[in-house]
Amino acid sequence: MYNKLLLSLALFSAMGITGCQKDDVDPPPPVDNPPALQFLVKSMEFDIGTVAHVRYNPDSTIHDIFYNNQSAAGQLDFTWSGKQALALSYDGSLYRDTFVYVNGRLTSLTNGWKRGTSPTSYKLDYAYNSNGSLAELNYYQTNEAGTKLIYSTTYAYHSNGDLASITSTQKSNQYKIKLTIDSWSADCEINPWLFIGPGPNEWYTLYNYPLLSTFKKLPGKITKTVQQAGQAAETEQITVNTYTITNKRLDKTATALSYPKHPNLDQSHSVIYKY
Predict the structure, then answer these.
(1) CB of 253 closer than 8 Å to CB of 270
(2) Strand partners of residue 98
(3) Is residue 123 helix, strand or coil?
(4) pLDDT digits over 13-42, tens only?
(5) What is the pTM of this model?
(6) Among candidates 167, 103, 105, 102, which has minimal Cα distance to 136?
(7) Would you kindly state where each structural domain of the chain is located, as residue ranges?
(8) What angle do CA 87, 2, 18 make, to 5 degrees?
(9) Residue ranges of the alpha helices (H) in the chain?
(10) Is pLDDT of 51 > 70?
(11) For residue 54, how many C-alpha atoms fall within 13 Å in the half-sphere facing its CB?
(12) What SS3 class is residue 227?
C-alpha cells in the first residue's frame, strides 16, 4: 500500500533537497535552537502523482505530513519537545525513529518498534568536528545475535566549509561508497524535517538532520562511486539537481538520474512546492 508513498519520500532524498540557512556569515545554529523559517511549505506535488500536505504546530514545527495519490494514502507523524524532534513514524507502521540529544546536539537515531522491545533494530551514531560540522556516522544493526557495525561513514569538507564528499565503508568486506558533491545551488531556505523519513534509505548519509541543518544551499551534481576491496572505483550513478529559487524560497526541484553502465535505468523527476 505504501510503495508509491515510500518512493515519494525516497525522491526527496534523490532530488538533493536539504536544509538551508538564510545568512552565509552566521555559524551553524545549535540543533535545539534552529532559526525561524520565513517560508512554510504547505504542500509538495510530485510528478509521479503524489501530493504531500504539511500541517504545522503553533510554533511552526511539523505536526504531520499526509501523502496521497490515487492508490494509497499515509501520514508521517512527528513528536516534539520544544524545537527538538523526538520521534517520527508512519501511522500504519510498527516502527518509528527516536532521537537522542546531548547538550542540544543530535547524537543518535534508533529505529525500532513503536511499542515493546524490537528483536531487530538499527541505530545511527553521529560524531562532530570541533566547529560543529558532522565528522562521522556509524550505522549499527541489532538482532538476536547482538549488535554489529555495518557501515562507517566519514565526511570531508572544503576550506570554505562546503561539504566535499562522503565516504562509507562496509565493515564486513571493505566495500566503499563515495558521494562527491560537484556543484551547489544558490542560497535557499528549507525545513530539513520535511525531507527526512523514518527507516533506512540509500541516501541516509547525506540526508540526515545533523548535516542538513548546517547547509546553506542545495547539492547540485552528486557523483556516486562504488569500490570493491582491491579493485578500482567505478561511477555508479550521477544525480543532477536543478532548482527554481526565488528570493531564497525553493519553488521547484528537477532531478535527472543517470547510470553510466545501465543507461536504460536513467530517469528524471520533479517536485513543485506550494506555500
Answers:
(1) yes
(2) 87, 110
(3) strand
(4) 444 443 333 333 333 444 445 668 899 999
(5) 0.86
(6) 167
(7) 3-274
(8) 55
(9) 3-14, 209-212
(10) yes
(11) 18
(12) strand
